[in-house]
């Protein structure tokens, strides 16, 4: 038998022992723990090998080991968690993406699921890794943008992520619009307007073109109000307390129709106009 074949058989045998050992560890942990039913399933919390073991223990069978952990994760998540949190999700996803960093699904799964389990920072770290390892994916930056917006309130990073997602022809039409919205609300109005202008002029998607035009008109109205607030101050010595004062003060006859239909407010200290958000 050729020496190379012998080496591969030995390696395969060692890997098989590793998997069997992993299963035995899971069995021991399950036996020690109190089993609780979740629906029709029995809850078994999986055990994840330490990173140093993962790095050296797969012996070239990284994809196979990653598949083992992916199936463990699906079984774990699908069984339900009677303790109220999937405590091992982050560790499982970390093991999978360490063993097979080009496997795209774990990144999007983690971005969608981890934040609600209390692993917001871990979700962001996973997403940032995904940006490097699977740059062709629009899903990773798109869902990373949502996490940055929803859980971190970081509108700049959210806008950057949505803008990156929008570069893919397969990305949702909303990606370009969401990029502009986040930049605008972060105070980077010029960046947002530039994004919407490009979308309005060159997007092949009708929804994107139309929505971009609506936001361009929306922010043109905001800038119109701000200009009128300056005129109001020059006439009355102060900025208006409300937008209604622009009308009662004789500066405008009526409010222009806003296609975005978002309530606006004026800051009586600076005259800046902004959206009223929940």
Describe this structure in words.
The chain has 278 residues and is mainly alpha-helical. Helices cover 63% and strands 4% of the residues. The protein is built from twelve helices and four strands; from the N terminus they run H-E-E-H-H-H-H-H-H-H-H-H-H-H-E-E. The protein has helices at 3-32, 51-57, 62-78, 89-99, 105-113, 120-133, 139-152, 155-166, 174-185, 189-202, 206-236, 244-248; strands at residues 37-38, 41-42, 264-266, 273-275. The strands form two sheets. It has a two-stranded antiparallel sheet with strand order 1-2. The chain has a two-stranded antiparallel sheet with strand order 3-4. Strand 3 (264-266) and strand 4 form a beta hairpin. Helix 7 (139-152) runs antiparallel to helix 8 (155-166). The longest helix has 31 residues, at 206-236. The protein is elongated, with a radius of gyration of 27 Å. The N and C termini lie far apart (72 Å). Residues 3-42 have low confidence and may be disordered.
Short synopsis of the structure:
This protein is mainly alpha-helical.
Explain the layout of strands and helices.
Elements: H1 3-32, E1 37-38, E2 41-42, H2 51-57, H3 62-78, H4 89-99, H5 105-113, H6 120-133, H7 139-152, H8 155-166, H9 174-185, H10 189-202, H11 206-236, H12 244-248, E3 264-266, E4 273-275
Antiparallel strand pairs: 1-2, 3-4
Number of strands: 4
The SS-based structural class is mainly alpha
Which stretches of 5+ consecutive residues score pLDDT under 50? 3-42
SSE order, as H and E?
HEEHHHHHHHHHHHEE
Strand neighbour order, sheet with most strands: 1-2
Q: Strand-residue fraction?
A: under 5%
Q: What number is the mean pLDDT? A: 82
Number of helices in the DSSP assignment:
12
Distance between the termini: 72 Å
- How much helix, percentage-wise, in residues? 55-70%
Report on the biggest sheet: 2 strands, antiparallel
Silhouette: elongated
Rg (C-alpha, Å): 27 Å
């Amino acid at each position: 038998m050729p020496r190379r074949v012998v080496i591969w058989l030995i390696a395969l045998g060692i890997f098989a022992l590793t998997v069997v050992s992993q299963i035995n560890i899971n069995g021991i942990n399950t036996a020690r723990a109190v089993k609780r039913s979740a629906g029709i399933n029995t809850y078994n919390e999986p055990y994840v090998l330490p990173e140093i073991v993962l790095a050296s223990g797969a012996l070239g069978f990284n994809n196979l080991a990653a598949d083992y952990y992916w199936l463990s994760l699906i079984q774990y998540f699908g069984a339900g968690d009677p303790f109220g949190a999937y405590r091992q999700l982050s560790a499982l996803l970390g093991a999978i993406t360490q063993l097979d960093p080009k496997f795209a699904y774990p990144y999007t799964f983690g971005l969608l699921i981890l934040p609600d389990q209390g692993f917001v920072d871990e979700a962001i770290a996973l997403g940032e890794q995904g940006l490097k390892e699977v740059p062709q994916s629009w899903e990773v930056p798109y869902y990373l943008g949502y996490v940055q917006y929803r859980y971190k309130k970081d509108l700049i990073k959210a806008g950057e992520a949505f803008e990156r997602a929008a570069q893919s022809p397969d990305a949702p039409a909303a990606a370009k619009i969401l990029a502009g919205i986040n930049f605008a609300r972060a105070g980077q109005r010029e960046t947002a307007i530039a994004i919407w202008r490009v979308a309005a002029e060159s997007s092949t998607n009708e929804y994107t073109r139309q929505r971009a035009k609506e936001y361009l008109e929306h922010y043109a109205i905001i800038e119109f109000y701000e200009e009128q607030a300056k005129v109001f101050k020059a006439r009355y010595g102060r900025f208006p307390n409300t937008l209604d004062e622009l009308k009662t003060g004789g500066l405008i006859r009526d409010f222009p129709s806003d296609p975005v239909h978002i309530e606006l407010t004026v800051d009586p200290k600076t005259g800046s106009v902004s959206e009223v958000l929940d």
